[in-house]
């Protein structure tokens, strides 16, 4: 078997394996020339508590990639399970302008759009950009966090569909 054939087989197996990994869904937003831009994402996580930081992975073909590069700011809107309808507008089928016509959006003092009923909103400044394969990894230092939901109920994405988390043990 050639290395290329093995790599293609590995890619298919990797995609299938990753379909079984549940990820919390967020809408990543930024501002470009005063206009809101955003995309749905599951490729994000915390990086450090000192300084508080997070990373977000963005496909190099994403329409908002340039906005993030230019503004160096982002807003991570972590969705609740009842926010699943929001994702249908941020998956790439709608223009950036159309994405923000639905649901209740507001803006931070810096003009970053945020979803008013998100489970949590994390605002940060991009401090590092790492290209890798088809994606760019952005690392941002966290400057502000908004959350008034005492009981987390994140929207999850697993095996091609949306799901809810169920606690198996008491907190």
CATH architecture assignment: Roll
The percent of residues in helical segments reads: 10-25%
Taking the alpha carbons of the first and last residues, their distance comes to 50 Å
Number of structural units classed as domains: 1
What would you report as the Rg, rounded to the nearest angstrom? 17 Å
CATH homologous superfamily?
Electron Transport, Fmn-binding Protein, Chain A
Largest sheet: 7 strands, antiparallel
The residue ranges in which pLDDT falls below 50 over 5 or more consecutive positions are none
Task: Specify the oligomeric state.
Answer: single chain
Strand order of the largest sheet: 3-2-6-9-10-5-4
Shape: globular
Helix/strand structural class: alpha+beta
What do the pLDDT scores average to? 92
Helix-strand pattern: HEEEEEHEHHEEEEEE
CATH C-level class is Mainly Beta
Structural notes for this entry:
The chain is α+β, with helices and mostly antiparallel strands and about 170 residues long. It has one domain: Electron Transport, Fmn-binding Protein, Chain A (Pnp Oxidase, Chain A, Roll). Helices cover about 20% and strands about 45% of the residues. The protein has 4 helices and 12 strands. The strands form 3 sheets. It has a 7-stranded antiparallel sheet with strand order 3-2-6-9-10-5-4. Strands 1-11-12 form a 3-stranded antiparallel sheet, with no helix packed on it. Strands 7-8 form a two-stranded antiparallel ribbon. The chain is globular, with a radius of gyration of 17 Å. The mean pLDDT is about 90.
């Amino acid at each position: 078997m050639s290395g290329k054939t093995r790599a293609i087989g590995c890619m298919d197996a990797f995609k299938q394996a990753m379909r079984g990994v549940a990820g919390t869904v967020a809408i990543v937003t930024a501002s470009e020339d005063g206009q809101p831009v955003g995309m749905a994402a599951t490729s994000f996580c915390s990086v450090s508590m000192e300084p508080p930081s997070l990373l977000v992975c963005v496909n190099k073909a994403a329409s908002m990639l340039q906005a993030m590069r230019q503004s160096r700011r982002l807003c991570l809107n972590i969705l609740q399970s009842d926010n699943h309808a929001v994702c249908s507008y941020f998956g790439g089928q709608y223009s950036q302008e159309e994405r923000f016509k639905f649901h209740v959006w507001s803006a931070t003092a810096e003009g970053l759009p945020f979803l008013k009923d998100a489970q949590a909103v994390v605002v940060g400044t991009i401090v590092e950009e790492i290209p890798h394969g088809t994606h760019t990894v952005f690392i941002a230092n966290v400057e502000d966090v908004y959350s008034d939901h005492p009981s987390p109920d994140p929207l999850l994405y697993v095996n091609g569909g949306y799901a809810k988390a169920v606690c198996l043990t008491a907190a």
